[in-house]
Write a sequence for this structure.
């Protein structure tokens, strides 16, 4: 990598990291391009050279967050564990209760997914994002296949779809509980952690 390429990469990283921090702490509508430039330590003209449109930065942040998720699934796939244990670890990973940074990032992805259709030519603009999502789904499918091969997960073609549904539902429920944490603290049993343990137990028992 040349010095010029290295400097360009550093500026690109600074922009994405600044935008990630701003977008996950605020609504992206309230964040201005100048805010991102200021936090990245660059001029507004430089920012527009890298990202001519705000939605391009939003997509870049979504890719950044999802890349972190992909790293988790890749690492999990490399581990030597029974398939059912790996699925249990996926549930644990989806639990954002008490982790404000991860929760804010998950909220960003939820909003991004809900509004992605508003991005011009989103299938092309967010192609990398969709590629990562598909790779994560492919890894989960492999985890299920390997779990069936080692005998820790039940057989059948529908099991992969069942597990995908469980993971999605568990993640949504975990994020909802995390968002309701203040309310749940005022209520009696069961608290958020207990509810997640119950749901995890139901799903894991279904897979045994």
């Amino acid at each position: 990598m040349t010095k010029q390429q290295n400097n360009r990469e550093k500026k690109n990283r600074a922009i994405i990291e600044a935008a990630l921090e701003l977008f996950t702490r605020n609504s992206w509508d309230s964040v201005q391009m100048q805010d991102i430039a200021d936090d990245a330590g660059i001029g507004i003209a430089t920012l527009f050279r890298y990202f001519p449109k705000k939605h391009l930065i939003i997509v870049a942040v979504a890719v950044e967050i999802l890349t972190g998720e992909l790293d988790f699934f890749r690492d999990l796939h490399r581990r030597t564990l029974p398939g059912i244990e790996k699925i249990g670890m996926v549930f644990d990973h989806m639990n954002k209760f008490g982790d404000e940074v991860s929760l804010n990032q998950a909220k960003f992805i939820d909003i991004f997914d809900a509004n992605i259709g508003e991005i011009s030519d989103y299938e092309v603009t967010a192609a990398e994002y969709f590629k990562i999502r598909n790779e994560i789904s492919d890894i989960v499918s492999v985890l299920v296949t390997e779990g069936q091969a080692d005998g820790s997960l039940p057989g059948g073609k529908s099991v992969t779809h069942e597990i995908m549904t469980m993971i999605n539902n568990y993640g949504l429920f975990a994020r909802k509980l995390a968002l309701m944490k203040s309310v749940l603290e005022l209520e009696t049993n069961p608290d958020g952690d207990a509810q997640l343990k119950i749901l995890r137990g139901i799903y894991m028992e279904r897979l045994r």
